Amino acid sequence: MKHELPPLPYGYAALEPHVDARTMTLHHDMHHKAYVTSLNAALEKLPGLQNRSAVWLLRNPDKIPEALRSAVHNNAGGHLNHSLFWNAMSPDGGGAPGGLLGAAIKHDFGGFDKFKTEFETAGAKVFGSGWVWLARTRKDGGKLTICTTAGHDNPCMHGDYPLLLNDVWEHAYYLRHENRRPGYLQGWWAVANWKEAARRFDLSGRSAGKTWEEDVQAPATTG
Ligand code: MN
């Protein structure tokens, strides 16, 4: 089994004006594709790991030979995070989450606006390249948390379940927003896909058993 680049779930220009078509084209067709290509290249030397998902590879670094550990880790993370990221945005995005996720955000952050400010602040503070996440912890009765990761690390590495994420590598925003990462983060809410976040919130509650690891990956990109 080879890892495959999933198609974008919308057109390159669908998230204009906030995320421009040129950025989406480079980001998906060049950056994400390169992670998939490099991951497959590294796994060619590791036949025993070729059927493992990107989530499994991220969560089991000790099962990967040291010489290839960084290559597998970085590219599995790049593949997984971008697969999640395309679905974390939508041309029909924006607004505020309702239902159980909306209630959980209100309960755990003291309100939707407080949550948004905290998420933006965390994203703006990431030094260098990384990601900012809304995730559901495995402790505290599934409490929500905002966290950041460096490089292409993912909250699933320490057992948290990712619900929504934003890419704060410069390649995600520099063509349109130049050095103004805080402005990118503030405007990004217009394309945030709360429908997908709510679906993942529901999934995180139902998949507490042994299938949890594999369920982290969006169904469209599994296999
Ligand atoms: Mn990226």
Walk me through the structure:
47% of the residues lie in helices and 9% in strands. By secondary structure, it is mainly alpha-helical. The chain has a three-stranded antiparallel beta sheet, with helices on both faces. β1 (130-136) and β2 (144-150) form a beta hairpin. α1 (21-43) packs antiparallel against α3 (66-87), α4 (99-109) crosses α8 and α5 runs antiparallel to α7 (181-187). Mean pLDDT is 92; it is low at 218-223. The structure holds manganese (II) ion. Residues 27, 31, 82, 167, 169, 171-172 line the site of manganese (II) ion (MN).
Detail the topology: elements first, then pairings.
Blueprint: H1 21-43, H2 54-59, H3 66-87, H4 99-109, H5 112-125, E1 130-136, E2 144-150, E3 161-167, H6 174-177, H7 181-187, H8 194-206, H9 212-215
Antiparallel strand pairs: 1-2, 1-3
Here the CATH topology of the largest domain equals: minor pseudopilin epsh fold
* Head-to-tail CA distance between termini: 8 Å
* Range of strand content: 5-15%
Low-confidence stretches: 218-223
Unique ligands = manganese (II) ion
Q: How would you sum up the major sheet?
A: 3 strands, antiparallel
What's the count of strands? 3
CATH architecture annotation name of the largest domain: 3-Layer(bab) Sandwich
| Helix and strand composition category | mainly alpha
> CATH H-level name of the largest domain... which superfamily?
Iron/manganese superoxide dismutase, C-terminal domain
* Approximate shape: globular
Q: How large is the radius of gyration?
A: 17 Å
Domain count: 2
Mean pLDDT: 92
Strand order of the largest sheet: 2-1-3
Look at the structure and give the CATH class of the largest domain: Alpha Beta
* Secondary-structure element series: HHHHHEEEHHHH
Q: What portion of residues is helical?
A: 40-55%
Number of helices: 9
